[in-house]
Write a structure and sequence with these properties.
The complex is a heterodimer of chains A (about 425) and B (about 500). Chain A is built from three helices and 24 strands. By secondary structure, chain A is mostly beta strands. Helix content of chain B is about 30%, strand content about 10%. In chain B, a hairpin with a 2-residue loop joins strand 16 and strand 17 (about 440). Chain B is globular. Classes of the chains: A mainly beta (about 425), B alpha/beta (about 500).
């Protein structure tokens, strides 16, 4: 088991499939129920969804770990111009590892290691939108120690500080036409690793009657300030008119705050239903500004103007057998991207999400958790209107269609 | 558990194949149609414009942005096949004959120490294209830079042995199928299903770019007697053009014919002003005195009846404070040297004269470096080759109008598509054409429509050309080939590797 965790921990890159660059894959059991978890007391996945619930876990030690494989593709076409492109993004592998330890009747300690934000999109090099992005890889790992405290039999709270370590790598062409003498497109790669920041989360759980739980969780906004990253300019013409030199850069990327509110109800021995509402405070993402250290390199300003967005989730669990639990769920995921700001680096519109999964108890300590997510996007005509050439906005538009399939596997261990 | 893993792996593999698909994907089925045309084997016939010549040279990236190559990529969405071009070996633009450089490198936009941009010959690379190494293949693009109409049916135009005499064209030597092959023959032998023909520009252009030093051969029906800078007789043009179209349509191929833009609206002729030289009052007065004897001599001959009063007036030379018209030699003025050898064919340019782009490097310089008074354009006249006078412009426009009438009549008679390049270029030259990143005009360097030679389009200019031709094809044949976005195509290439 230790080896499995090591292997999982080595895989850090994630791939987007939720609004913006949020990657909502923080537990196979929760995901199988539409990624509801804020009010479900089931296993250590609570460390992410609502640490207030950890104290209610029956066992002294609870560990959950898992990894998902994100098969995500985007196609784009422009009918007026006969242009077509598709992403060839590598399979993303977001993961999680959670643990809780019940110290006494009213106190549990916990740990959350997860990758709730990330993005990986690779378009064809020099495609029609290459002045906006050729490829991007964002990754962030959350590491969070937790306490969970039972205030009364009906009410508990939990939370802890979050340490984030992230990285970003983005390549794009400088504009639509600039090349060197041999026609190679001028481009820039910005790369920053080991970007760290702190945040926090706090949750509460209320159990008004035995079979009904109500959960609340708030995870703070975290601004990732990349300072002194490397900016590497390639295929720049040998001309005083294009004084781009390799330099360093500063940039900020927000990981927005997220509020979750939900309820679960144990209908009978076999059936559990859960509902959850999430609100992501994306309006913090106003602009992606890259400030190059060298004064000859013009800074890059890219308005994003995201709006806050909501996710509506519902899930059910059915204990088919003593050792087998079946789950299913659905959620509607609103895109934070507003009209005219649809940039191909995070090409996401509203999505309908269908989930399913199961847990199988191998013995009284160990269970296998499997989940599957299908993300269904509508075809969308969209544009990004804020790219500028010679002071003039030049829209980049077309029809996008995305899909994602995410099988995931995890284990739950309890002692 | 092993079984579970296996099952999940199979599901995962199955899903990899489930990529998103549009309701109406443009790259599948018949989203775009070819109408009554068949683009499966498109052959482009023409001159430098068809070859993708730009910046005074032929080089790979220019060829990739030739209008036929741009069109072929759009044709590919509507049943078009592979489109091959006789690509040069590099992007220097230069070429060798027998190991010695014979064609100059391309122009690039260089900046001097003060930050002023100007075209300069690229010296950052040594050309590697050997003209005499035949590529031994046929190419869909049979555009031959420098070719006039009658060259396309001239056997031996691609024979290396004829290079020395000037009867062969180095660009065609690279891919002629045989020493006695013709450009038309090499096009027809590919059995094109669709063709484009844009020829005739050079039949007047070389006369124009040489400042009219050639001869208007109207009336002379034997092109083998023409000099390189002569205007082709319209009857010769008509006969050749008919032969070209008959050859290209012999197998029933559809195609598009393209007419000839006004060469005088090219930036090569519109960039250098006729009155480029600023003078202060003292210098103007001093210079005017220098021409007193000439002005007096001309007036005496007017009085004597040797020339008209009107010509006498045109030949009066004087300067004043401010911008001054340059002094030019005009061969169409009455030769007065028999009366007095000092009386050259001099006059000052007017706004109707066109100074060629290359005059900018001559005007204001010293004819005799040791003599500071020998400023060309003031004390020393600008040579005839730098000025296209109104008489010369008339010769050009008369021949061109005749060629264009022929082209349109043949297009109509053969029910071929016809692209009015003349109107489109006129629009570019007068106000410009809008695209998503601004307006394309024919202003030299800054307008975006033309390359640094002032004659050939930039990639963006070629993209606009391709769009116009595509529109004409769609109109005639009911096809739905999409346009390209001119904003995706560049303009001039920057480089300071110019020594």
């Amino acid at each position: 088991m230790r080896n499995l965790f090591l292997a999982v921990a080595l895989i850090v890159s994630a791939s987007i499939y939720a609004g913006g660059y949020r990657v909502g894959l923080q537990g196979q059991r929760s995901l199988a129920m539409g990624h509801t978890g804020v009010a479900v007391v089931n296993n250590a996945e609570l460390a992410f969804f609502n640490p207030a619930g950890l104290i209610y876990l029956e066992n002294k030690l609870n560990i959950s770990g898992g990894v998902s494989a994100v098969f995500s593709d985007v196609v784009w076409q422009n009918e007026q111009l006969g242009q077509y492109a598709e992403t060839d993004s590598p399979v993303g592998t977001p993961f999680y590892l959670y643990a809780s330890y019940k110290v006494n009747d009213w106190l549990a300690l916990g740990l959350n290691i997860s990758t709730p934000y990330g993005s990986r999109v690779e378009w064809e090099k020099d495609w029609a939108g290459s002045h906006l992005v050729n490829d991007i890889e964002l990754a962030a790992i959350y590491i969070q120690p937790l306490v969970s405290i039972k205030i009364s039999d009906k009410f508990s709270i939990g939370g802890g500080p979050i340490y984030v370590s992230g990285s970003v790598n983005l390549n794009r062409n400088l504009n639509r036409t600039l090349t060197d003498i041999d026609g190679n497109r001028s481009n820039v790669t910005i790369d920053a690793t080991n970007v760290t920041a702190w945040g926090w989360s706090i949750g509460a759980m209320f159990t008004p009657v035995e079979d009904l739980r109500i959960g609340f969780n708030y995870r703070s906004e975290i601004i990732m300030d990349a300072e002194g990253g490397d900016a590497d300019f390639s295929n720049i013409p040998n001309s005083p008119a294009t004084p781009f030199v390799d330099t360093t850069f500063d940039a900020s990327l927000p990981l927005p705050a997220e509020l979750s509110l939900g309820a679960s109800y144990q209908v009978n021995d076999k059936w559990l239903v859960a509902f959850q509402f999430d609100r992501a405070y994306w309006n913090v993402y106003e602009s992606l500004d890259v400030d190059f250290a060298s004064p000859t390199n013009p800074d890059s300003v890219n308005p994003r103007n995201y709006k806050n967005s909501s996710i509506y989730r519902v899930g059910v669990e059915y204990k088919a057998l003593d050792k087998l639990a079946l789950r299913a769920g659905y959620y509607f995921d609103e895109s934070p991207v507003q009209d005219g700001f649809f940039a191909p680096e995070t090409p996401r519109n509203d999505s309908n999400n269908f989930t399913a999964g199961l847990s199988f108890d191998i013995n009284e300590h160990l269970a296998i958790d499997a989940s599957f997510l299908y993300v269904r996007f509508k075809e969308v005509d969209a544009s990004y209107d804020f790219y500028q050439e010679n002071g003039q906005n030049v829209p980049f538009n077309g029809t996008y269609k995305s899909s994602a399939f995410v099988p995931g596997l995890g284990i739950t261990y309890k002692l | 558990m092993k079984n579970n893993l296996k099952y999940i792996a199979i599901v995962a593999l199955g899903l990899v194949a489930c990529e998103p698909e549009f309701d109406n994907p443009i790259n599948e089925g018949d989203f775009y149609t070819s109408g009554q045309a068949d683009f499966s084997n498109y052959v482009a016939v023409g001159n430098s414009l068809t070859a993708g010549f730009a910046d005074g040279a032929l080089y790979i990236t220019g060829q990739e942005n030739s209008y036929p190559n741009i069109m072929s990529k759009q044709f590919a969405l509507a049943g078009g096949g592979e489109f091959t071009q006789p690509l040069m070996a590099d992007n220097t633009g230069g070429a060798l004959i027998g190991g010695t450089q014979s064609l100059s490198n391309r122009l690039v936009l260089a900046f001097d120490a003060a930050g002023n941009p100007a075209p300069a010959v690229y010296t950052g690379g040594t050309p590697t294209t050997e003209i005499t190494t035949n590529l031994n293949a046929s190419f869909n693009n049979v555009g031959v830079p420098g070719a006039k109409s009658f060259h396309l049916i001239a056997p031996g135009y691609g024979s290396a042995a004829n290079l020395a005499t000037g009867a062969a064209n180095p660009y065609y030597v690279r891919f002629a199928s045989a020493d006695d092959a013709t450009v038309l023959g090499d096009a027809v032998s590919q059995n094109p299903s669709f063709f484009s023909l844009w020829i005739g520009n050079n039949d007047v252009l070389s006369f124009a770019t040489s400042g009219g030093v050639g001869v208007d051969q109207t009336g002379n029906l034997d092109p083998t007697t023409y000099g390189g800078n002569d205007i082709t007789d319209p009857t010769v043009f008509g006969g050749v053009y008919t032969e070209l179209v008959n050859g290209l349509t012999a197998n029933g191929a559809k195609g598009v014919l393209i007419n000839l833009p006004d060469v005088t609206s090219l930036p090569f002729f519109t960039t250098v002003p006729y009155n480029a030289i600023p003078l202060d009052a003292a210098t103007a007065a001093f210079l005017t005195v220098q021409y007193n004897a000439y002005n007096l001599g001309v007036n005496q001959l007017v009085a004597g009846g040797a020339i008209s009063a009107e010509e006498g007036e045109r030949r009066q030379i004087s300067f004043s404070e401010g911008q001054n018209a340059v002094v030019i030699l005009d061969e169409d003025l009455t030769d007065l040297s028999s009366f007095n050898p000092q009386l050259l064919n001099l006059r000052q340019a007017t706004s109707e004269d066109l100074l060629v782009l290359t005059s900018s490097s001559v005007i204001g310089t010293l004819a005799d470096p040791a003599n500071p008074a020998s400023v060309i354009g003031l004390a020393v006249p600008l040579a005839d080759q730098y000025v296209l006078t109104t008489d010369e412009q008339t010769m050009i426009s008369t021949a061109q109008a005749s060629y264009n009438a022929t082209i349109q009549a043949i297009a109509t008679a053969n029910e071929l598509a016809f692209f009015d390049a003349r109107s489109v270029l006129a629009q570019v030259a007068n106000g410009g054409l809008a695209f998503d990143g601004g307006i394309v005009t024919s202003a030299f360097v800054t307008g975006g429509g033309f390359s640094l030679d002032g004659v050939h389009p930039s990639p963006r200019g070629y993209a606009l050309t391709a769009n116009g031709i595509i529109d004409a094809i769609n109109t005639t044949y009911g096809s739905t080939v999409p346009n390209v976005n001119p904003g995706d195509f560049g303009t001039v290439t920057l480089s300071n590797e110019v020594n």
